[in-house]
Write a structure and sequence with these properties.
The complex is a heterotrimer of chains A (314), B (336) and C (298). By secondary structure, chain B is mainly α. Chain B is built from 14 helices and no strands. The model of chain B has no long low-confidence stretch (mean pLDDT 84). Chain C has 298 residues and is mostly helical. Chain C has a single domain, classed as MetI-like (MetI-like fold, Orthogonal Bundle). The chains are: A alpha/beta (314), B mainly alpha (336), C mainly alpha (298).
Chain lengths: 314, 336, 298
């Protein structure tokens, strides 16, 4: 039974638990998580590795292998996926309503097929596009969304650079025409410049294409650039939630503060000499936002004071 | 890519040289007197004469560099002398026997490659089911049965029901049978004698099936194992998340990753299937490398055995290289 | 001692032990090993088992299986059961000899190639390419003429072809280790190349190669027996007591005294089956993804 109100909700979890069974014992990676994300909304799930966030993200994307134990309830795109200990609708949402941008794009592309053939398989099986030329046209359109040329279709995955395979993976996740996209650590393994580009690209899925977006990350600073809502998870439980700007401005849980500090430190540790197109201080700035990828103008504040920062331009 | 082929070809050439060097070692570094071994360990009044002759043939009285040069020349041109056991030129005997064994092996692999792959996929897709368990037990059991013993048991069973598919062809066809290609199935067709063809086939199938047992079940077990493992690769899970159908997932995502290794396994197993073929054909009293080795051992016909060693090893080297090249084609990622 | 995962192998073994098929395989092998060791006591006619044609045997002649001789007696009247029991010694011993010989040679050369690199690596990989495709049966035939037939000749010819397989694995493994930190650190600390190879590279390479050798043991046993069979089928010296030779010799009398070749084959199959059961469990348990409960879920 799915209520009408639930169909307006993109993701609804009610005391959802997910665990792994190994040699008789069950280890619960996600414990009693409840969350609600409206259609067109965007949610960031932040936590350190081992917090169960990837398991949660996979479940939302319908990836629930048989060795995963479940409890509670999960509804995605109006389809009930988890009901108590049973997985009921994962195969109805997977690759239809929801897709996933993988954590490690290089390993996530079939090494034996050219990129064009991977697109062909996905387009044929998810949208019934049978002809090769039609599929190629659609793949070209999807690649242009992520700023890649058609030549990529004729390359093997091992011939792509890290940033290219990440963009191919994003384009692939759009291929089935989902209304919800789950991005799992989209910026790990990328250098600072690409990180900004990919972050903007994923944020645009929500802002410009109107998709519901779930981002899984350990880096709280990228949350602000992509999402409106934030849930902080620790050892499988949500410890704090709210709108991104509120939580970042005034974190209430000590773990959230710790994550913010860690993120600032990580940025400070990055090489500052790397010059990007946007703000020169971007790589080390704790307040770096999406607009910082464009070069900020020099602002005159009066009293002879000048500053080059987008934060004050707002 | 072209560079790879050139390097592979060069390696192949040096390997042939290495093989010749090995043969040289076998012939000239025999303990005791090489000429005595080469002459077939003769005894009796004419022994001294035979040894003398062998020594001249091997060029033992020549300086080392001439010895090596003449040996290599002789070997490469195929003038390998006469066989004591068969009273015919060694080259002719070995080549004919080799064709017979190849005919058997080809039929075996024509059966075992599709069957092994099919069984492997079947088991992997039904992993844990009753059919999988039965097949898995059966493949372990069948892989443990020595092929030569299986052949012996089959011959005995055939004997009990009065059916004796021995030899390569019924003797009554021999009078009109002309060996053109040396492959009897082809020769029978060339003679346009369907009855002879069926006779040859009926005698070929039982040993071919026995030789096929090992590669079939070995590869089936490997495919079952590797396919199941591949279904957990990142790129397969990714395809699952994108809604790719089960059929595509199995055939193009998982199996595609297993094929190169499965193919290589067939290549590696060919060496051991060759041993099986040699032994099984001896049991079925067929002409072939097995018989050549047996006769050679009986008569200490060393030139014959060395020639068999050289021919068989050369072909196995060639097959190995071919497998490498096909593997390279199947595996797009650059690997050297 | 620097080991990547000290408890890895023990954990794998523990998981294997939970499988019924693995325990069955171990039971078969232990039983056969016991038979091999105790065969002089177990065999009803130990002398005949060793191939001696005793006066009692000569009087007896070939007899079909009966209560007194469960497996019958061979052409010379020797008790086949005793022959099979004593034969287990020779067949298993030969297998162990080949495994140990090719492991020692292969791992030594493979580690040398992978760790030293350069000219030794090129030479050894060339030798691997050369020896890997040689069919053992032709090597055995050639060696039998040169140095005479026998158990050791067959074992030697198998070692000569089989070592290359392990050398290849050890080579790949140790080449990967060469660039790892702990090996570099040990070198920087001033330990000699040989010390590092023996104490740091070898312990990490050995487990994987040894596991592979367990998987191969059935093939080795069958390969040895095939060659022995071929040589046995022309043997005039009828006292070589291993299973392969017995089947090869007995095959001549298949239509009259079928028990001569049937029963040794049964034992050979049993031994190979034991090796295969152990190897299957080991290979499945060493793969992390297969340990999970598995079925198609997409």
């Amino acid at each position: 039974m799915v209520l009408a109100q639930e169909s307006r909700t993109a993701v609804l979890a009610e005391s959802l638990s997910l665990g792994y069974e190994d040699m008789g014992a069950v280890f619960w990676a996600v414990r009693g998580v409840s969350l609600e994300l409206p259609r067109g909304g965007s949610l960031c799930i932040v936590g350190e590795s081992g917090s169960g966030k990837t398991t949660l993200g996979n479940a939302i994307a319908g990836i629930i292998p048989p060795y995963v134990r479940t409890d509670g309830r999960l509804v995605v795109g109006g389809v009930e996926v988890v009901r108590g200990s049973r997985v009921v609708g994962a195969d109805r949402i997977r690759g239809r309503v929801v897709t996933r941008i993988p954590q490690n794009p290089a390993a996530s592309l079939n090494p034996y097929l050219r990129v064009g053939e991977i697109f062909y398989d996905v387009l044929r099986d998810s949208r019934g596009i049978g002809s090769r030329s039609e599929s190629r046209g659609e793949a070209r359109r999807l690649l242009s969304l992520v700023g890649l040329e058609e030549e990529v279709l004729d390359m093997y995955p091992h011939e792509l650079s890290g940033g290219m395979s990440q963009r191919v993976a994003i384009a692939l996740s759009l291929a089935p025409g989902p209304s919800i996209v789950v991005a799992d650590e989209p910026t790990s393994n990328l250098d600072a410049y690409l990180r900004g580009y990919i972050v903007r690209l994923i944020g645009d899925l929500n802002r410009r294409l109107g998709m519901t977006l779930v981002v899984i990350t350990h880096d709280i600073s990228v949350a602000e650039l992509m999402c409106g809502d934030l849930s902080v998870v620790f050892l499988g439980e949500i410890v704090e939630r709210g709108s991104v700007s509120e939580v970042l401005r005034k974190p209430l849980h000590p773990y959230t503060s710790e994550l913010i500090e860690a993120s600032v430190l990580e940025r400070a540790g990055r090489k500052s000499g790397m010059r990007t197109e946007g703000c020169a201080y971007y790589a080390r700035c704790p307040h770096a936002g999406g607009e910082c990828l464009k070069p900020p103008p020099m602002l005159r504040l009066g009293d002879g004071r000048e500053v080059r920062c987008w934060r004050l331009a707002r | 890519m072209v560079g790879y082929y050139v390097r592979r070809a060069l390696l192949g050439l040096t390997l042939i040289l290495g093989l010749i060097a090995l043969v040289y070692l076998f012939v000239y570094v025999a303990p005791g007197n090489p000429a005595y071994v080469w002459a077939g360990k003769p005894r009796g009044p004419k022994a001294a004469e035979a040894i003398e002759l062998a020594a001249r043939e091997l060029g033992l009285d020549q300086p080392l560099h001439i010895q090596v040069a003449s040996f290599v020349c002789r070997f490469l041109t195929g003038s390998w002398g006469a066989s004591v056991a068969f009273k015919r030129p060694v080259a002719e005997v070995v080549l004919g026997a080799f064709k017979a064994t190849t005919e058997l092996l080809l039929l075996s692999y024509a059966i075992s490659i599709p069957l092994g792959l099919y069984l492997g996929i079947f088991m992997a897709l039904r992993r844990g089911s009753a059919a999988d368990k039965v097949l898995k037990f059966l493949s372990s059991l069948l892989a443990s049965i020595p092929r030569f013993w299986l052949a012996v048991v089959v011959i005995f069973a055939f004997y009990l029901i009065g059916f004796q598919p021995l030899g390569r062809i019924d003797p009554r066809y021999l009078a009109e049978f002309r060996e053109v290609t040396g492959f009897y199935l082809l020769d029978a067709l060339l003679m346009s004698r369907p009855d002879a063809f069926l006779d040859v086939l009926a005698r070929l199938i039982p040993p071919a099936l026995i030789v096929a047992v090992y590669p079939t079940f070995y590869v089936a077990k490997y495919v079952r194992f590797a396919l199941s493992e591949k279904l957990y690769e990142d790129y397969v899970v990714e395809a699952i998340s994108l809604g790719v159908s089960r059929r595509t997932l199995v055939m193009r995502y998982s199996l595609r990753g297993v094929l190169p290794a499965a193919f290589q396994l067939f290549g590696i197993n060919l060496v051991y299937s060759f041993v099986d073929a040699a032994v099984v054909e001896t049991v079925f009293m067929r002409e072939g490398i097995g018989r050549v080795l047996v006769e050679g051992l009986l008569r200490s016909d060393y030139p014959l055995i060395v020639a068999a060693f050289f021919t068989v090893s050369l072909v196995m080297l060639a097959v190995n290289s071919a497998v490498d090249l096909v593997q390279k084609k199947l595996e797009p990622r650059v690997r050297v | 001692m620097s080991r990547a995962r000290p408890s890895g192998e023990r954990e794998t073994l523990r998981r294997c032990w939970r499988r019924r098929s693995f325990r069955a395989g171990v039971a078969i092998l232990v039983a056969l090993a016991l038979v091999a060791v105790l065969s002089p006591v177990l065999a009803p006619y130990p002398d005949e088992g060793e191939g001696l044609v005793t006066d009692a045997a000569r009087l007896r002649g070939p007899l079909p299986p009966s209560a007194a001789h469960p497996f019958g007696t061979d052409v010379f009247g020797r008790d086949v059961l005793s022959r099979v029991l004593v034969g287990s010694r020779y067949s298993l011993l030969q297998t162990v000899l080949v495994m140990v010989g090719s492991l020692a040679l292969g791992v030594f050369l493979g580690v040398l190639a992978g760790y030293l690199g350069g000219v030794p690596e090129a030479l050894i990989s060339y030798a691997v390419e050369l020896f890997l495709p040689l069919p053992p049966v032709v090597v055995a035939a050639a060696l039998s003429v040169v140095i005479g037939p026998g158990m050791l000749t067959v074992a030697l010819s198998l070692v000569l072809t089989w070592w290359a397989w392990y050398a290849r694995i050890a080579h790949v493994q140790s080449r990967e280790l060469r660039d790892l930190d702990f090996v570099k650190v040990s070198e920087a600390l001033g330990f000699g190349k040989i010390h590092v190879a023996l104490h740091h590279v070898l312990p990490n390479v050995a487990p994987k190669v040894v596991v592979q050798s367990v998987l191969d043991s059935a093939s080795v046993l069958l390969e040895i027996s095939s060659i022995n069979f071929l040589i046995g089928s022309v043997a005039t010296a009828f006292d070589a007591p291993d299973w392969g030779t017995m089947i090869g010799y007995g095959f001549r009398y298949i239509t009259t005294y079928w028990w001569m070749s049937f029963f040794p084959g049964l034992f050979l199959t049993l031994a190979a089956f034991g090796f295969i059961l152990v190897g299957d469990a080991l290979s499945e348990e060493s793969s992390p993804s297969l340990r999970r409960r598995w079925w198609l879920w997409f």
